[in-house]
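User: quick one, fold this
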Amino acid sequence: MNLRLVIENSMKYGVLICIRCHDYRRQDVFLSTLLYLLLPCHLFVAYIIELGAARHAKGALGRIKRSESTPTDDDPLPDSRSFQVTWYTIAWAHGINATFCLLVTTYTVYYHIHHPLLGTICQVHAIIVWLKSCSYAFTNRDLRHAYLLPQTPSTLPEIYSQCPYPRNVTISNLAYFWWAPTLVYQPVYPRSPSIRWLFVAKRIAESLGLSMFIWLASAQYAAPVLRNSLDKLQSLDIASILERVMKLSTISLIIWLAGFFAVFQSVLNALAELMRFGDREFYTDWWNSPSVGNYWRTWNKPVYHFMRRHIYSPLIGRGFSSGFASTMVFVFSGFLHELLVGVPTHNILGVAFLGMMVQLPLIALTAPLEKVKGVNGRVLGNCIFWVSFCLVGQPLAALLYFFAWQGKYGSVSRRAKV
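Assistant:
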């Protein structure tokens, strides 16, 4: 950060860092802790559902062998009507369990947890549990289908043979998936030979240091800019609003980059090392993205793999176009973004959702630039990405949600406005 700006900020506002100035209500702390501890119970419920499904599958396979009948494409299993009823029951049970997980957390955060940071932590946790529960259900459904139709050519990865269905339906297997830094369930994952404890210590130190930096930067630099923008937004002074957005873009980018490094480089790598998780590609060089679409494919690999595995590919397999499948992915992602931002701030504005929808025309605009010969097309696409990322996206969204929060509650801090 420019030293002149640091000195100017200090002279203008003084030291704004204050631990006791924030309104952490006792109810907020109690409810957020309770939610955080109870949310993994939904994964246990998913395990109970799959345990019943596995026993039913074993019984069905035994009946097939005893009847000496051969399943066909028209009638894949004997007594297929009752079998389909069971499958629909399993699907409904998983759907109710996963949805209940998200609904209860969203309701509690929106109506009963005042502090946005604690609410955000709860929402992030609930969405992770929800996505993991969905992936656990979808993958076991496919494994169960392959188990009951052994005569069909297998499309399962070879590594799955190390823990074939239904041997994977165990508490230990689910517990590993719960802690593994991935959102896509597999019975078996590539594993590293040992844990490098010095590596873990370094990553933890990085995450703690960056968390402290984010807190300091938010309180000392971002908060004054946001507060000073309120009157401009209220009077709809467009020129001043644009100036504030550009001023906010610098500190918001620094905070975002620090948060990205803390999560994807430090926390996830530390967790992967502790779990001996072999796949460490949590992101690639998204900063060199020649298009907006390339950025969304590379900056968050765990979410990208979930979207591709459980939304995009199934839609393509059912005959939908790639454009429709991509649109559904961004609609789903927009819904999750609104839950992550709108619910903790108690303002469902639709800005986060709309921001994801705006990505679709930007992707269509920059996709041809990837195919242009030479570097000019890729450079232009990268410039469009960075302009939309730094100026249009995060600063404007932060400004609007902060304005809505202030209009509803006032500042989180007890300290008087500067």
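User: anything notable?
Assistant: The CA atoms of residues 93 and 99 lie 10 Å apart.
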